[in-house]
Amino acid sequence: MPVKMFTCEVCGEQVSKRKSYAHGEGRACKTHEEAQESHKKSEEQRELNLKKRTGRSKGDRPNSSNTPKPLMKPMCWTCGSNAIPLSEWARYQLVAMEKVNLQHKNINAMEMLRLQNEEARKMLPEDVSVVVNIIHIKEDKQLEKVLNRTRKRFRDAVKLGRGTCICSGCAKSIGIKWQDERLTEKAMENSAMLGAVYELSGMKEANAKIAEEMIAKESDQ
């Protein structure tokens, strides 16, 4: 496709858009002082319009008033405690496992699990106190029990979706299962395969690297 050409408003020569600036009612070669002055004024006006519209200049970083904020932090819909999702907690656990493996040798499985949970909890943000899971509720009686304990602002979501976002402590007190036992059993049955995937996918290496960096940082403190 041929390049579109314009007639320069100053010298009358043919010029492409890339080699010209907007000037007057058309365009003019970039080499002309008149065109450069028009371009400068145009850029200043654009900058002014941006500032009026957003409250910031072109080179400024977005401030807190212009940056979209998350609707809310994850929390337990029953007790209201700040939380992290179960999937994120699993990532903390994997890094913690690698850290324990690097720091401790020849320990039994129970001690390994205790230390792993301890290390994972150290990684949590300061304002997080629980882990939450999304629970689907099939029985009407259970749904009623959950609704009675659910915070007011979440009740419509619980009714509509027949589910809740809840920590293990609240789930136990209400009397609902926090995790699907069948999934846990399935994971145990396929532990060898999952372990192989964990190593071959590169996740083990990546988590071990994070753990090494954490250990090095702790030793410098």
Can you walk me through this structure?
The structure is a single chain. With 221 residues, the chain is an alpha+beta fold. It has 2 domains: 50 residues, no CATH class; 138 residues, no CATH class. The chain is 52% helix and 13% strand. The strands form 3 sheets. It has a 3-stranded mixed beta sheet. A two-stranded antiparallel ribbon has the order 1-2. The protein has a two-stranded antiparallel sheet with strand order 3-4. Helix 2 crosses helix 3 and helix 2 crosses helix 9. About 5% of the residues have low confidence.
Brief characterization of the structure:
The protein is an alpha+beta fold and 221 residues long. The chain is built from nine helices and seven strands; from the N terminus they run ββββαβααβααβαααα.
Q: Write down how many β-strands occur, each being a DSSP E stretch of 2 or more residues.
A: 7
Q: Helical residue percent?
A: 40-55%
What is the N-to-C order of secondary-structure elements (H for helix, E for strand)?
Answer: EEEEHEHHEHHEHHHH
Biggest sheet descriptor = 3 strands, mixed
Question: How many discrete structural domains?
Answer: 2
Summarize model confidence as the mean pLDDT: 82
Arrangement of strands in the largest sheet: 5-6-7
Low-confidence stretches: 61-70
Which class of secondary structure composition applies to the elements? alpha+beta
